Amino acid sequence: MNNPVLKLNEQGRGAFLILDGEEQLGEMALAIFDKEMVVYHTEVLPKAEGQGLAKLMLNAMVAYAREKGLKVTPLCPYVHAQFKRHPADFEDIWNKAKEDQ
User: Which CATH architecture best describes the domain 5-98?
Assistant: First the structure.
């Protein structure tokens, strides 16, 4: 099993993926617009649940956002829950301006 890899198209849409060989075990769907990353959905195959794959993708996404100076809008329930549960860990990248929209 590999670390998460980011696949983006020319429009800035794509996902962090976790692959086991050719098989995709997890996906965190997102899009990047200017200096904003919108995270839409996180999913892990049932057979790969409980292995911390969602957390691996979260950590990769956060590291990428920090490296690129992006603010994150967490529309994904998993990512949003993690941001709310540990706000100090994500304060520098959390786009709270979009929370009430």
Answer: 3-Layer(aba) Sandwich (3.40)
